[in-house]
Amino acid sequence: MAVSDPIADMLTRIKNALAVRKEIVIIPSSRIKLEILSILKKRGYIEDFKELKVNEFKEIEVRLKYGLDGRKPAINEVMRVSKPGRRVYSKKDEIPRVLQGKGITVISTSKGIMSGDDAKKQGLGGEILLKAW
């Protein structure tokens, strides 16, 4: 089945897995998803991820992260901002902060996908892909 927005599909799979307290979620692989997951891992929102080859398809195994008690997920909410039907762009000075800096914005810039903080430091704007907190 073809998915019209693969990033939204990935985020939905992660949210659903967190809702039922799964430890691992499997998603179809793509370069952009790997880059987004590396940012989420670097910022402590997921435990780890690895790319697997299943038959002729590649998939990503994402290990989700929970609090010390094993109940509270590290990601409270993840939201797709720019969608195929409505792209959302931001200038370098207008990159939104999520929860006064407690969350993260992921942006697609001319120099690749990066967090909003990194884009501001490099003086880059771009398409706002998602927000997480």
Automatic annotation (TrEMBL):
rRNA-binding as UniProt keyword: yes
InterPro entries linked to this entry: Ribosomal_uS8, Ribosomal_uS8_CS, Ribosomal_uS8_sf
UniProt xrefs under PROSITE patterns: RIBOSOMAL_S8
Coiled coil regions in record: none
Domain of life: Bacteria
GO biological process, one term: translation
NCBIfam families in UniProt: PRK00136.1
Assembly: Part of the 30S ribosomal subunit. Contacts proteins S5 and S12.
Protein name: Small ribosomal subunit protein uS8
